[in-house]
């Protein structure tokens, strides 16, 4: 896990010889491939690939790897990147008052399970300040009064400013119960991860457990997805469900649901920060 | 499992003393309660109850049990019934060409796992005749040409006639790929069980696996429900999901999905024929 | 959830009329039964029962309920108790260095999901002191040097003294990596809950993930059980499994396994503190 | 699924450049790789690989592919094979009286889901003859009287003779309740697949559901594995579990367990016949 690695991810139009070309490129420098995954999307005939290479098997740095790979990438019209495991992703967490996802993420961070940096936590409530600051992480409050669009717009500008200042890589809405403005979504496309407390596309929008209760479903679920400009309709990264029965009230669902929400968010975020998620239209390829 | 039992199911307005009254009634005759389940619906304040009593512990027949229970039932304004395990439910199976659910149900029937009678199987295709008849079960063909409403109406009249002649208790749509007419649904309310190949309310209607594929969900599911006059919107009896990933095509989903469909239908039907399902509005109470 | 309730649990030799007698007893005082569950163990012909009664539906206190119930209990030779939801169970947590279960339990406690008191946390390491004390919970260190039986015996005496002083109801071994002395187990029979990181009875004892890796199983699991005098062989309260594959190393299993361990322990502890677990020989009845 | 494909599987000592060499080999002939999977076993430093290639993308036959690949295979000291999807594996099924797995396999076969040939079914009971023969599959009876070792030895000789005559590729013990002689196991190493009705290594040997009941586990399971000379200890291909509770009797477990057994066997067999399973010591790599 803690080994130094370079991760190459790419997509390009499918054709014969891509794997051979990339493998030969890596092999000529003695590169040791630790993990390799491929996928072709049948509708778009787009090819997707991910390789993890042991950094110590290559005679040069990630920068040099990028420089040398560029010619091959051009030849195959690749969209691509090389990430270096020594550079941890910077994850800014947004949260309201429900803290189960935050508590879970912070534990995974401080135990070293999630290899990320958390430059700050931002909230529209003060209640979690002490817990966050105990971790040595800065906590910022933004004011989001109900029914005050101007104040909300200002708050999102503040969030945007903080995120950019902190050189954030990804923003996690860890049960941040606010609808994100469309232009904000557009600005950070593919960089905002949300956890929605239903099995999407069932029960979009507010109070999904109430919706589930009234529909009488026998399972509840949670969905981790990239935020897009349509509410709860962005590319899905991870989902899960759990069994309930007729005896469970909405409060029971809320309580049980927390366990799926935090597990699904943690898995989805891990896939993202390990460069396992490639977006293809409104779908994701997740190379687990 | 094969013990002779009476099953009492009831619902009534909730109040103190229902369980005490029913228990005392059963106990005064020495009745041995093998299973007992209760539920109060919080929205309607309706109470639901199910008790299985060993037949040999009572000094009289099911008919006599019904006669004696009537006074108590009146006092509490109960909707109720007593079923005798010696009288197996008569299940008429409707099927098109996909036979995985039919194959599964017939095996559970012939192995004695599902304690039902199957008076006949009805299909709009001839392809399964030989397999059904090998089991010694009559097979009826009904003609359902595409885009011919008159012929369809006639076919449903024929189905209705067969079902009534065979004294059917419940009709199972075991992947019967035809939309059931509204008046037919109304006529057999609570007596038609369908298996839908998605996790409802996601992906109502035709081609749910195609819908799932295009939405990019990470789990697929199946739902067993009573048919109501709104398509795929009746009370849900049982559901389940299974994990897929980006590499799975629609054909893969269809193939994997069969395993959930047949498992979910078999569980749902078993709950129904064992009198474990009580309907409350558009929801079900399932006393497993 | 936060309603004031009395919970009656009992076991006695099975016979006709137990439910009727108990129900009539509760009903005569207008007692409103919110949940009721029954079970008969076929091997011992022992009957088990649990009822939750709304406290405000009864005209007297839990003490008076106990006093009045005693005669009935004698008649049926019941082992029984009445618990009052206003008196929270006092849970002493023991932990070594792995803190995922501790973090999970403390969050459930501070969010009000687990309705318990935690009078103290005891550890043979100092590393979790700050985190525990941030919660306002006393943290006690006990010295458990390797290969020093005398020191260990002293440490367990210290634990025992703390537990008794704090009037503990139950001790939770939240990944407390020490073998508990036999006489200590005997002293607190049915009051020590352990989480073992395998699907018991597979992989008893040390390093179960290593054992799982070498056997090549396709699922790993966790088991929450009461501690008995035989290692990892006490009555099982709750278990779960998750899928792994050939690519997962022992480290991966350790990492994924944490999520099952904390979920299984949290469910098992909740069942225990809500008086849902009744022990029958070396098995448990769990009235969920 | 029905596309004509060649499947290359191999293992060899791990070193840099294997993927590059194999990919270049395939690419030089314009071979279109549809699926590719790799794994390195950390303990043995053995590399494992599987590639599916579209047959119509190569200008020659499987035989020619084998001939050309041999030099490369030698260079890397590979153990390898190339399978042609037009040549279906020949699966001989052995069964006793429990027919749920047989019914499931035969349905998957006749619906085209499992792309295999079933040259015959062999049983030590006559009860399933009619069902098998309805499928047009020969059914052979072998006499296996209890406590008669000589007769059993003769029966296994007969099975061996049939299997060889029918040019069987793999033997499936679909709940064949007989212990297979050690020399028979040795003779067909890696070619006998068994379904055991427990989550191995828990509950080896006879009556695993009884063992599970008495241990009081909260989940039951099933395991599909290659038969080795030690009882229920061969390499595991696939496993699964399902939840039970205290109310479930041994008979209930037997009934519920059938659903896991048939699902796990069907998955395991599919992995095997699609050349997805590579054996590494007493473990398997399953390239799903």
Question: What structural keywords apply?
Answer:
alpha/beta; four-stranded antiparallel β-sheet; 288 residues; 2 domains; homotetramer; Alpha-Beta Plaits; Rossmann fold
Q: Could you walk me through the main structural features you see in this protein, from its secondary elements to its overall organization?
A:
The structure is a homotetramer of 288-residue chains. Chain A has 288 residues and is of the alpha/beta class. Chain A folds into two domains: 5-84, 2-Layer Sandwich (Alpha-Beta Plaits), CATH 3.30.70; 89-286, 3-Layer(aba) Sandwich (Rossmann fold), CATH 3.40.50.170. The first copy, chain A, contains eight helices and 14 strands. Chain A has helices at residues 18-28, 62-75, 100-110, 129-134, 149-165, 182-187, 208-215, 250-273, and strands at residues 5-13, 33-41, 46-54, 79-84, 89-95, 116-117, 121-123, 139-141, 170-173, 192-196, 219-226, 236-243, 277-280, 283-286. In chain A, strands 5, 6, 7, 8, 9, 10, 11 and 12 form an eight-stranded mixed β-sheet that branches. A four-stranded antiparallel β-sheet of chain A has the order 2-3-1-4, covered by helices on one side. The longest helix of chain A has 24 residues, at 250-273. The radius of gyration of chain A is 21 Å and the shape is globular. The two termini of chain A are 14 Å apart. The model of chain A has no long low-confidence stretch (mean pLDDT 96). Chains C and D meet through strand 12 and strand 14 of C and strand 12 and strand 14 of D.
